[in-house]
Amino acid sequence: MDNTLQLSSVEAISTQLPEQSLFADIFSQHSGADYEAAINQAKELVITFLNRQKKPFSGISPGQLNLLFEQVDLDVPLTSYQELFHEVDQLYVQHATAFHLPHYIAHLNCPVVIPALAAEVLVSAINSSQDTYDQSAGGTLMERRLIDWTAQQIGYAPEADGIFTAGGSQSNLMGLLLARDHFALNRYGHNIKQDGNPLAAHRFRIFVSEKSHFSNQKNAALMGLGEQSIVSVATDSRFRMSMDALEAAIETEIALGNIPIAIVGTAGTTDFGNIDPLSDIADLAAQYGLWMHVDAAYGCGLLLTDTYRYLLNGIERSHSVTIDYHKSFFQPISGSAFIVRDKTLLQIIKHHADYLNPEDQDYEEYPAQINKSITQSTRRFDALKLWFTLRLMGRNKLGEYIETLISRCKEAAEIVRFDPDLELLSDSDISILLFRYAPEGLPEEQRCAVNQQIKKQLFHSGEVLLASTKVNGKFYLKFTIFNPLLTTADLHDIFHKIKVTGQQHGQQSN
Ligand SMILES: *Cc1c(COP(=O)(O)O)cnc(C)c1O
């Protein structure tokens, strides 16, 4: 290839730009100043968001917001960035949920680290696409290094491989799809990618805990196995998959003539934050010849701390793992990965397109991540965010955040245990707490309603954003502690607000 020739021809084009104004909005060699001005204003609005927002939510209702949206005519463009930022502030930023504030304690939304935000600036502007080397170059190699690094944290051997995905649901899909396709190939010599599901597929069974993520059901449906293929296994007193129940479920399905193909162990359930017994699952998977997938979308943060890494023991014996960097690695959405123990297992999903990844290309020399992707072709360079984070902060600092979350959660559990007005349902291996407002004077039949009111009122006032779930028909409040900056004082304040709100509603219903 003659690089000098190519470079000079680009310069030749750049000197003769027609109709400057028409093209001013295109990110190009001519628009550095326009780009900088726009990005600076965006940055200012972000700073305003940080300085202004005192509560995690404004409390606005969709109805109120809709009134503002009705005034917008999308067919009439605004005339300046000033107007644009003003409009977006009113419609969005002022009311955006502020995950960075400690009184946001609801879902699995982490505050994000600044190096990753700096990376985002590059990711969107340079806009590499990670499908092939010729659309990303160093981007592909960075992604591959980070996949290898993640595999190493899991404890996989160097044969491991994987790909960044859009999220945990998608990574879980890859796990189940590989499990299914390899099963059919090994058992019947049947190629599902080529020929579709075999007749026996309606008897395929996948075992998950009853507290596993719903993406397993959705993915089974997508794969043509139907939600019926998912066997929900009962959990123990700490809401982890019961091994007795798992073995019994496998035996029952076999006795019914059904065909177990995989077990999904959840490392950190969305509702309880607890970790299925991964080593025991690995034993049973080996005994029955099943694929073991670990959904560590939430629990993956434990890979970062030597103190708590033992909680994931057994993960290294799985066939595949889901990692959500946008949960426990403090990365902006999106950032997730699917990692597989042995790279040859990924061969089964490869599809060659002559224009993109032709069969005769040497993929050792010109790697193409597209070969490992099932649902994305054009794909963001999310890996750069993790690269920035890891290179600047290092694994241990992230690990310290995770350790902080775990101790805060323990602290919160203690507060609940010792408060006669609160009732603890479940503390967690990681950072989720389930409890309810349940003072002695409040009759059982009113407790669900009062706790629902607490959550609702705190949401509409925007003061505290809580999550909730139902366990055995009872309504519980849920903390997902994901902010390392949450202090003991914040915790006390949040509990205080919960109790004060509970008292008001408790009295009303008496
Ligand atoms: C959040 C979550 C998922 C889904 O991940 P997304 O990134 O939201 O698609 C899957 N499994 C578990 C256990 C989760 O907590």
UniProtKB/TrEMBL annotation:
Domain of life: Bacteria
Gene Ontology annotations for the cellular component aspect, listed alphabetically: cytoplasm
GO molecular function, one term: carboxy-lyase activity
Species, as recorded: Sphingobacterium detergens
UniProt-listed InterPro entries: Aromatic_deC, PyrdxlP-dep_de-COase, PyrdxlP-dep_Trfase, PyrdxlP-dep_Trfase_major, PyrdxlP-dep_Trfase_small
Cofactor(s) demanded: pyridoxal 5'-phosphate
Keyword Cell inner membrane appears in the UniProt entry: no
Key word Lyase present: yes
Family from the record: Belongs to the group II decarboxylase family.
N6-(pyridoxal phosphate)lysine modifications at: K327
Protein name, per record: L-2,4-diaminobutyrate decarboxylase
Lineage, top ranks: Bacteria, Pseudomonadati, Bacteroidota, Sphingobacteriia, Sphingobacteriales
Keywords: Decarboxylase, Lyase, Pyridoxal phosphate
One BP annotation, GO: amino acid metabolic process
